[in-house]
Design goal:
This is Phospholipid/glycerol acyltransferase domain-containing protein. By secondary structure, this protein is an alpha/beta fold. The protein has ten helices and 13 strands. It is globular and about 65 Å long. Residues about 1-75 have low confidence and may be disordered.
């Protein structure tokens, strides 16, 4: 309990910082406009005592469990066309075909202590990571590190900090399944995962630190460029060479809107990173998913990158992150267990449609109920 007093003193400031932190965004693909097949009609959604109008295509109804639309009825062309992998996933979720499994809820006292633990964790994590980044920058300036060495060592070190602190201050319990599927090869790998909250990056850093995933090829993430306005986080992403992408700060009912010049620069940086000995991690939903564990629309940038470099794709499914930190409640620590499944590498995915199918078929059941589907 020695951590409790400093935590109570730091909690107000840390709480404000955590709530203000922007989400990571990781999709190298500009969102397409809504299909012309759909007539647009107005529906409403309720938020905090008010009703907000939003545009939903005709022939689409809202998922009972989520705010995401599901195609139903519509024009003759809609009925004849084959539904996308995302639409099939949403229909299955609405029909209850994907069961939901959740860890036990924490009681009020345990929840309060867990949140205090979390604030202490973040205070130490950001402090230690920031000090390391400053040291790495100094060593780079005097010629001890090259730029690539600085980036690789920083990613490994911050991953080790994330993992070590979690064993001391376990504000969530991290289970990792499929560890044998992590093989340390010389060639590049494109990592793909679902995107739930700001906690995602910390979970992946902790995995990297615990399993030494980046011993040969450290993993670079894509992130929303707005993260650069937060000094400590900005220092980390720049020192480690993470890759920014510019995206409009739109509401969740509007599809992701990426800036074309930023997408081109991002693709150039990703190509260079793979050639320089890094792996790339992409969250193809592009932004935090307010409807987790139901998955959002996945963009095909990861598939295109893997195809260009003849690299396998390694899917990672996360389960339970939304019960620790989510879009609606922020860092609420309602439950503690976070389970991650690392699926076997998949070589030679032949199309965007196959990429989307595997994303939903593998990660969807795991995100909802920790169901490990055998890939076919």
């Amino acid at each position: 309990m020695g951590w409790l007093l400093p935590t109570l003193l730091l909690a107000p400031a840390l709480g404000a910082a955590v709530r203000a932190a922007p989400h990571l965004s990781s999709v190298p693909q500009q969102a397409a406009p809504l299909s012309r097949r759909f007539r647009v009609r107005a529906t409403t959604r309720k938020t905090a005592g008010s009703t907000v109008a939003q545009q939903v295509p005709a022939g689409i109804q809202s998922n009972r469990a989520t705010s995401r639309p599901i195609v139903e009825g519509g024009d003759a062309d809609d009925k004849n066309r084959i539904p996308t992998a995302h639409e099939r996933h949403l229909r299955a979720a609405q029909a209850g075909l994907i069961p939901r499994l959740r860890a036990p809820r924490l009681g009020p006292l345990k929840k309060m202590l867990t949140k205090a633990q979390a604030y202490t964790y973040f205070a130490l994590f950001f402090s230690l990571s920031y000090l390391w980044c400053l040291s790495a920058q100094a060593l780079f300036k005097v010629g001890v590190f090259s730029e690539l060495e600085r980036q690789k060592v920083t990613i490994r070190m911050v991953g080790q900090i994330a993992s070590s602190l979690l064993s001391i201050l376990p504000f969530f319990e991290l289970e990792i399944h499929g560890q044998d599927n992590v093989t340390r090869e010389d060639g590049p790998v494109v990592w793909v995962a679902n995107h739930v909250s700001e906690l995602d990056l910390l979970v992946f850093l902790a995995i990297e630190g615990r399993l030494k995933v980046g011993k040969k090829r450290p993993i670079k993430f894509l992130y929303w460029s707005e993260l650069d306005q937060y000094p400590v986080l900005s220092t980390f992403v720049k020192t480690s060479g993470m890759i920014p992408v510019e995206m409009e700060d739109t509401g969740f009912e509007i599809e992701n809107q990426y800036k074309l010049h930023s997408v081109k620069d991002m693709m150039k940086r990703m190509n260079s990173a793979l050639d320089e000995g890094f792996d790339i991690a992409i969250l193809p939903e592009g932004r935090r998913n307010p409807d987790a564990p139901t998955l959002g629309k996945a963009f095909p940038g990861a598939y295109r990158l893997a195809k260009k470099h003849k690299a396998p794709i390694q899917f990672i499914g996360t389960h339970g992150i939304e019960d620790v930190w989510n879009v609606a409640d922020g860092l609420h620590c309602g439950r503690k267990r976070v389970s991650v499944n690392i699926f076997p590498k998949i070589h030679n995915i032949t199309s965007q449609e196959e990429f989307a199918r595997r994303f939903y078929d593998l990660i969807g059941p795991w995100a909802a109920s920790k169901t490990d589907v055998v890939d076919s």
